[in-house]
Specification:
about 280 residues, seven-stranded mixed sheet, two-stranded parallel ribbon, elongated
Length: about 280
Amino acid sequence: MKSFYRTVRAMLLIVPLAFGLGAGAATAQEMSTMDAIKERGTLRIGVTQAPPWFSKDLKTGEWSSGLGISIGKAMAEVLGVELETVEVTWGTAIAALQSNKIDIQYLLDPTPSRAVSVDFPKQPLLYISLAVLARDDLEVSAWSDLNSPDVSIAVPQATSMDAFLTRNTPDADIQRYPDNAASIAAFQSGRVDAVSLFHPPLLAARKKMKAGKIVIPTPAFGSPSSAAVRKEADKSFRDWVDHTIFYYYETGRTQRWYEEFLAEFGLDPKKSPPIQKELLY
């Protein structure tokens, strides 16, 4: 019997030790994003076909241009690693971060619901503004210019854009459509005088149609966009991203990279709304 009790005591002593060793091994395997990037030798960014943010060269299959690519290359160079692109969609980018498939996703708006799942730096990456793509002969400089029953405006239904127009142009003929594409199609077919969206999608639409003008009416209504990173106890990568995008924004590099892509895309940067909000005024 004494031999039995000695055996039991020995087993009870071994079990906590085993759990302690297991926990230690698990902790050792949990490497911070910053350390993992340096060990792997690559900075992994999420990309999706969405000019002017990301653009794939269909001939080579490489993600070679776009503002997100320019920022990613600059960050990778500072870290002394290579840039690695991982294809995602806007809907799967957060899951890709959580599952450690990517290290950072540029151009995600820092909404409260997203902040539950991922981290965002304090500094916005850039600002996108609510704009209109209007007929060339339509005089538009302020939202009040559109506030007339004689002016018809297409907008995606039940969106922040719809709510803004409802508040600020209540007298306009606001025509609501299911999504961005349907709203743009209404303008292209001549059913409305203007379409209102946050300005990046309008750039591609204007290039395709080769007609209309993009205007950010005053008072400008802007929304910040950011760069999402994985939630983790070690905040060194998030804090470095915060410092870096602040530096790029304040020194004008972010705006310059954006303008360079617009020029490559065949658009005149001087006729396109800026993404640095100080340039709007």
